[in-house]
Amino acid sequence: MRYPPMLGPATAGARAGTDAAEDERTSQSRGSWLLVLALSLLLMLGLSMTTPAAAQDAAPADDVAAMTLLEALDVDSFPAKGRAIEAIVHSDDPRARDWLQALLDGRLQRAGDGRFVVVLDNTGRDWPVQDALSGEPLGQMSRRELDRIGINNALRNQLRSAIAVVDLYAADVGLRRASAERLLGEVDGDLAGPLVEVIEEEPDARVRERLVQALAIYRLEQGELEAIDDLQGSLHPRVRVALNRAANGDDPIVADAAREALNGIEQMLKLNRAAETLYFGLSLGSVLVLAAIGLAITFGVMGVINMAHGELIMLGAYTTWAMQQLLPGQPGVALILAIPAGFLVAALAGIAIERGVIQFLKGRPLETLLATFGISLILQQLVRTGISPLNRTVITPEWMSGSIAVNDALSLTLNRMYVLGFALVVFAVLMLIMRRTRLGLEVRAVTQNRAMARSMGIRATRVDIMTFALGSGVAGLAGVALSQLTNVGPNLGQNYIIDSFMVVVFGGVGNLWGTLVAGLSLGVINQVLEPWAGAVMAKIIVLVFIILFIQKRPRGLFPQKGRAAEG
Amino acid sequence: MDSSRLWLLRPFGERSTLIFLGVLLAAMTLVTLLHVAVPPGHPLYVSAYTVNLSGKYLSYALLAVAVDLVWGYLGILSLGHGAFFALGGYAMGMYLMRQIGDRGVYGHPELPDFMVFLNWDSLPWYWYGFDMAWFAFLMVLLVPGALALVFGFLAFRSRVTGVYLSIITQALTFALMLAFFRNEMGFGGNNGLTDFREILGFNLRSSETRLGLFLATGVALALGYVLCRAIVTSKLGRVCVATRDAEARTRFLGYRVERFQLFVFTVSAMLAGLAGALYVPQVGIINPSEFSPLFSIEIVLWVALGGRATLYGAVIGAILVNYAKTVFTGAMPDAWLFALGGLFVLVTVFLPKGVAGLLALRLRRRRDGDGSFSGKEASA
Amino acid sequence: MLCGQCRLHMTFTTSPSLRGRKEVRLNASRRIMSFPLRSTTLALMAAVSLGSASQALAQEDPIKVGILHSLSGTMAISESTLKDTVEMLIAQQNEQGGLLGRQLEAVVVDPASNWPLFAERARELLEQHQVDVVFGNWTSVSRKAVLPVFEELNGLLFYPVQYEGEESSENVFYTGAAPNQQAIPAVDYLINEMGIERFALLGTDYVYPRTTNRILEAYLKEEHGVADDDIMINYTPFGHSDWQNIVAEVRRFGSEGKPTAVVSTINGDANVPFYRELGNQGVDAGDIPVIAFSVGEQELTGVDTAPLVGHLAAWNYFMSVDTDANYDFIDAWIEWTGDEEAVTNDPMEAHYIGFNMWAEAVRKAGTTDPDAIKDAIIGVVVPNLSGSYAAMMPNHHITKPVLIGEIQDNGQFDIVWQTPSTVAGDAWSDYLPGSRDLMADWQAPMRCGNFNVATGRCGGSTAAEEAEAALAE
Question: d(Cα B359, Cα C468) in Å, to the nearest integer?
């Protein structure tokens, strides 16, 4: 830790604001010097509770000092800014944390008249601002008048570390966890002492474990052999770095112990890496399954080669975007609403395609390919001229960002996890529809023998429409999911259409299980190959593999049986 | 020997072939005369730009004929013919690159420029021989032919048909596109091969050479057309049509269907390669986008628009669509894709026999003759 | 000794090269007359192009400015705004009375993101439309495709995009950055300001990333002593969307104790899934910053920028540049597009500079004749949008400041560093063995795009050809 812990009143202010009861508990149990802090904290609490105007009246001298602190930030040299930040950390000003946070977010700016302001919203040409000292709103200012206090990544790290130390004493467990995470490998002599006490007082086991490791890394750096025990089995990269350093160190005993600890870690890492690759593969596979499964229905069941399938996916993705535009500030709700909406939009488009074109091409599957390809071009250009040739921004809701850490070496990205789950749910529902509903029964009957089904009173035309709508709707669902992973633009569909065909053909036309198995296995094969073959070669190998596989089994993994199979 | 010559000469007895050759010859002569004999500035003068453009259209027409041969008469909807076209183009491109010699920007006597700045220290083995015209021109035919032979052998032997065959031909061209995009392949990656200077000693930047290339393409188209006609009117061609319409029945009649398919598919691939080789010096660049599956689908559209299984329909389709493309992308770029997409839909739904179908219909009304495209067309 | 050689060589090559140009001009006049219906005017124009410029006659016809940017297809995303930019600049120029008393007229064609079509359209512009200058192209491959056409028909092309260098054509003016104006200052910044010791060079597999990464690799090893182990290079195809493995690899690469950065030459559409994956795998700018050479304001409009904050980009212009010239440009642009949210970016500034340079050269030469412009434009200095000046160098590249910006949550860049002065573009990299000895100088008497200082010979193709032709006569 390069900066002494900031135990200033700002910390206290933040905490006091959040949870006074917990605050009391911790401040009493910590060491006596913390008690002193608690007092100043209370004082600050009082200060921060007063109205800004009153604060201004009460402490003009404070503002002079604050102004000097902030003035120091408005320099060109980044090292100088670093020193200014340090000065703010050490100041007793209650607004320090807010300043640091604003600085970190790039919202601390200087107006033309020399005042420091915090920008509340920096979109458009005029921005609403508030005074950095008084907290008073100052209305809107033109961006021409504002000068940003720029920071770079080094300062950003410095700010984060400073805020992390502050947050170590926060009431919120989440903040403390993030802070402990941050301190791993950043503990220095100044922090080591207080840290021992913090660990003792820490109620949360996870935070405690992290802090113990953080401290152990420091102890290891000091040559303490016992520290290795605390680090044993940890998969965290910073722990590994520390052990590696120790293994190459001067002390042979410590080095040997470190090496031994590393060996164990390496074994675990290999397992984790395999699990990670499997997850990557399944995740890619789930995308392929989602994109292909609608095609499996229209292609497999109806014999229609729908080249516009990709554009139906695109429509689903644009529906997601449109929902987010309709519900600004509610990306999560919009996303959930986009699931039925995307299905509907794509299904309606599917019905239009079926009624408008495909019904005239019965029994000419290769020509449906050409006609639907034409439709795909039209749809793409419609989006380009109607909406924009540029990609659209689709926001990932908070609950879908980030990842779940299984352990320190393996974390599963949340958005992909949701997509994987979503793909399985869609698959299960489709299976249910096909197996358990009247529609499914009729669809299967028409597939197997159209003439016979019609003579049994099944309205084949209606079944065609429903099937095509279902397949297209599922493509729309795929679009909703893909909007969370990739670009939403006019070319979205094109990128998936060939892959989708490969999956369907590989799995066996007309077999949903085949599509699932094919999609997931192609995904896994691709991801296993990628690290050593490279992304492009992996894809080429998979394509060649499919070509050869089709020679061996011309009707895919799970061939359709019966008369319908002879096309 | 005698019979094979007869086999090749048979198309000359056909009216449709003679008409086609006559029109082609007339068009070539007209363009040449208007370019050479008419003084520039005269309203009838055909500029070097137009000659060049016409040459490009003719090479596309040859490609369309090749696709029609397999789609129209064999029932194989190849979505990968762009691959053979591009391979032929690359073979030609490699020859043209080697012709640059040490006049590249780095002045390296052997390596093309892109290899110098991507740090190749020697010529990869597969570039050997391309400095010799005869070898390169042979490769123009052999490389696509060999690929078609191997691919066709595997596919037809295991009776991959219909949609499956279409999709794996698409996979083939897609895989090749990805491969040629890779700079490690030694074909210039995304930039492809460009900055050609001369062919057989003629300066590629002179309008005389351009006229020569245009004429050569016309001759190639004529020869390709006659060859295809000869194939489809021979006994072999009849077996092909039988295979197209009822593969299983033909097989049961004792024909080794896959051999016929393989032969015709390979010939078609070689013609596509030849078209590519003639295309490259005229447009001045070959890059992996020619392998794009979309391009291959577009070729099929030309054939569908012109009229499948007529050969001359393919030529009409290729020229019409590409002319429309030149006009539309210039005049109203936004509308172009609408027009192309609409064309796809309208032609397949309302004009299943294409422009040639319309022509044949008018002819048939006048005299109750034989259309070359008759009989029940089964779904492939 | 060396110099004597080269002077000898120069005198040998210049005269045939002049003769070559005359031939070109004669060709051009013939082609001009091929244009039907207006033969009298055209004959007069031919006379103009032969050198006897006549001011009175010239005033009748507008000056034609060709625009060669894709308006459809995959590149339309990036290129269509450049078409609008040039149209705006032309309109502004016309408001000020045009050039040489003549109005300017835009001739727009659409090469539809198709490379052979680029060559065809270029020919159409120069041969059929007889344009005086062309602003166009984005991708390297499209530039390579039109290059022979411009050289053959002696046209002028202003190319506005950062590119891989290794080229200097007599007919092309490179107003975008060469690698030494973007990539090298960027890694200098990473090393000097951020203390980065390990570099992951990620790029899309095409010539610009390949060349840039080769230059960077050589530069890092030679100038900064970076070890082989500390450089990771990876290429992905266009539009790559599954970044899981690569990001995981970068994360491992960056977790070995040394400060690590990613130098990204990832192109276009592949960026969104890349940054998303970075964000989701928990790699933020504080841990492993990504510095991108192909991500600008335009690209960020399609991205949720929240997880990207702090990642970097190196350009020669940012929309957030704090100068009045820039704010005026932005206001004009917003007015022109009618879109309050419209953004400006680096290639737009390049067109702004290129257009003004060309206009200045036309004023200076008093004609739009390509050969006169080529001579007049070298040394022309115009203000850029970031408060400094751009000068056209003899190698047809320009001087540019290098700016490093950090992505903000509003899709803009915060400029964190910039070169103290402008940097002149280097056509031939000093860090590639093949091009180390080459230099370009299109001034008389050298007039060579690839002069080899080691052999004292102009390695250029035209020179060799013309020399042969001269010997044959």
Answer: 55
Residue A391 DSSP label: P
Contact A290, A481 (CB under 8 A): yes
* CA–CA separation, A127 and A129 (whole Å): 6
Is A50 part of any domain?
Answer: yes
Closest CA to C298 of C348, C247, C228, C232: C348
B47–C128 C-beta distance less than 8 A: yes
Each domain of chain C, given as residue ranges in start order, spans: 183-292
Q: Which residues, in sequence order, are CB contacts of C73 under 8 Å at separation 6+?
A: C112, C113, C114
Strand locations in B57-209 (E): 193-194, 198-199, 202-203
Which of A2-6, A366-370, B50-54, B274-278 has the least mean pLDDT? A2-6
| Mutation site for C-interface testing, chosen from B117, B282, B290 by largest number of C Cβ within 10 Å | B117
- C-beta separation of A171 from A19 below 8 A: yes
Per the CB < 8 A criterion, the answer to whether A88 and A96 are in contact is: yes
The ipTM is 0.88
- DSSP tag of A298: I
Query: Which residue among C282, C298, C327 places its CB closest to the CB of A403?
Result: C282
Counting beta carbons within 10 angstroms of the beta carbon of residue C18, is it exposed (0 to 12), middle (13 to 18) or buried (19 or more)? middle
Q: Model confidence over C268-287: pLDDT tens digits?
A: 778 888 988 888 888 888 88
- Can you tell me the distance from the alpha carbon of A258 to that of A264, in angstroms, rounded to the nearest whole number? 10
Tally of structural domains, chain B: 1
Distance CA(A152)–CA(A78), nearest Å, equals 8
How does pLDDT run across C130-182, given as a tens digit for each residue?
Answer: 999 999 999 888 999 999 999 999 999 999 999 988 889 999 999 999 999 99
Minimal Cα distance from B292: which residue of C? C114
CA pair distance C419, C193, nearest whole angstrom: 12
Pick the CATH number of C183-292 from 3.40.50.2300, 3.10.20.310, 3.40.630.30, 3.40.50.300: 3.40.50.2300
pLDDT digits (tens, 9 = 90+) for C50-97: 433 344 444 568 999 999 998 877 787 788 899 999 999 999 999 999
Of the partner residues A148, A389, A395, the one whose CB lies closest to the CB of residue C77: A389
